[in-house]
Amino acid sequence: MIFSEVARVTLRALLGRRRTILMLLLAGIPILVGLLVRANSSGVSDVGPTLDGLVIRIVLPLVALVFGTAALGSELEDGTAVHLLTKPIRRSTIVLAKVAVAGTLTALLLVPSTVIAALLIGRAGVGSEAALAMGVGVLVGSYVYVAVFATLSVLTSRGLIIGLGYALIWEGLLAGVLPGSQAFSVREYVRGIAELLAPSTMDSMGGGAGALYAAVALVAAIVIGSLRLAAYEVRGAE
Amino acid sequence: MSQAAQPIPALQPTPAPPPTGTLVLEHVSRWYGNVVAVNDVTFEIGPGVTGLLGPNGAGKTTILHMLAGLLRPSAGTVLVAGQSAWRNPAVYRSIGLVPEREAVHDFLTGRAFVEMCARLQRLPEPRAAAARAIATVELESAADRPVGTYSKGMRQRVKIAGALVHEPPILLLDEPFNGMDPRQRLHMIALLRSMAAAGRAILFSSHILEEVERLADQVLVIHAGRLAAAGNFREIRRLMTDRPHTFVVRSSDDRRLAAAFMAQPAVFGTQLDDGRLTVQVAEFGGFTRAVATVARDAGVSLFEVAPTDDSLESVFAYLVSRR
């Protein structure tokens, strides 16, 4: 009951008109690319790498960043979160409900978009297998990214900027250069899960490791976020 | 200034009130980096209305936030209804907080917001409780409109309804009168008084002397993070008017008037410079009563008598300095 109460108000807050339109546009980009590929050829065989560069590298982290930071950080900034924080409810319930709603919204937008794009891009016989693998990868990635970004927005008031830096610089540039950093890259987890389901679509850090790291990151982010929220101090008003 | 610090009078008569409705600060300090916001404050308050009076930036909000468990005290103990408020969500069954700055989601109707508060408090009948709270703040006519369409006074009232929907024994309000018109202010004063009459402990902050005078049974004066005075309003008022004052006087013969003033026991100094006569007096009331007679007896016409430091800021500074 508490969970659904927090979830409901979070959902209403996240579905602001401007944000929703912007996110729908972002989610439409993979489909648009799919249509363009389809119009000019009969599809490609390397569906994984094509979608990886577009969806997993850019669209997924961006949408998750917007929803994740809006669900917690923005409410802490404008003070609406105070009405939740001054109730006799567990702080972990707040974090769980927020991550669940923001993660589900991200997944609802991006899983269909990814699956449709994979089916459009993929050559006959390749597309459906890749679509399933990428769809599941993006589904899991939605929740992991949102949890990480939501917790980041509790830890710092600059969650949006730092999250953007993480996705673009850490994951985009360094993870390719420094092999060890892959363990801290959600993008690599998503690639790993896709590989696990359809080995031909992706060449990653290894599917088992990806799934395991994703689970650990999700739990760790929620635990850290809850602990930090339990000791949250309003920023100086005076 | 050299006199021994007087103990702050106990605000609550013995025997001790039930612990559910009390707020206690024991040697509480709070600092942000090198800045001390609250400095070694000790007080205990019980049922009734208590005003936290002080200029902006004095530390009032910091004190309220510590009582509401939204800030960790850097030193000392904060007890709300006998429990620590920090990292203890259970304490929110006993507290209602009405923050000043914090917003309510614009898209919620007033009723939806108050019902949400009721459900988060796990009340058995959230709708009925919300309806009662909305009636208490007289917001029924606007309850089904989005909060985004509310005036500032209405937002304040819907926040109060949300804070008292679970009928907490303690209500904390940060600058509740800000942005209210005089009519709303009167209504709010009546509302808070009736809630105090029902046995609640109500602590509100304000930087306006008149608001505190009209509403509070007890007053805590805060200045620069320190507790400057505590007691009932009449005592505080007396302390404020009995302090030494400085007046600027213009007259037909300042030199002669200065000599006449020096013969008065209430005056302990006069100064003439740039054609202005400045008079230091020990007590406000005595001097203002005597000044016309003194001038007449000396055969001097008075053009102007003006106190120089009547700002609330200087009053607070004086109260701190005499402790």
Structural features, described:
The complex is a heterodimer of chains A (238) and B (323). Chain A is mainly alpha-helical and 238 residues long. Chain A has helices at residues 2-14, 17-40, 47-71, 73-78, 82-85, 91-121, 127-155, 159-177, 186-197, 207-230. Chain A has one domain (2-230). Chain A is built from ten helices and no strands. Chain B has helices spanning 60-67, 110-120, 126-136, 152-164, 182-197, 209-215, 233-241, 254-262, 284-298, 312-321, and strands spanning 23-32, 35-45, 48-53, 75-80, 83-84, 95-98, 170-173, 201-206, 218-223, 226-232, 245-251, 267-273, 276-281, 302-307. In chain B, helix 2 (110-120) packs parallel to helix 4 (152-164). With 323 residues, chain B is α/β, with parallel strands linked by helices. Chains A and B meet through helix 1 and helix 5 of A and helix 1 and helix 2 of B.
Radius of gyration of chain A: 18 Å
Mean pLDDT of chain B: 86
Radius of gyration over C-alpha positions of chain B, nearest whole angstrom: 24 Å
CATH-assigned homologous superfamily of the largest domain in chain B: P-loop containing nucleotide triphosphate hydrolases
Biggest sheet features of chain A: none
- Number of separate strands of chain A: 0
Assembly status = heterodimer
Q: Which whole number gives the mean pLDDT of chain A?
A: 91
Weakly predicted, low-confidence segments of chain A: none
Distance between the termini of chain A: 36 Å
- CATH class of the largest domain in chain B, named Alpha Beta
* Coarse shape of chain A: globular
Which spans of chain B have pLDDT < 50 for at least 5 consecutive residues?
A: 1-5, 10-18
> Using DSSP, what is the number of strands of chain B?
14
Summed up, the helix count of chain A is 10
End-to-end CA span of chain B: 7 Å
Q: Output the CATH topology of the largest domain in chain B.
A: Rossmann fold
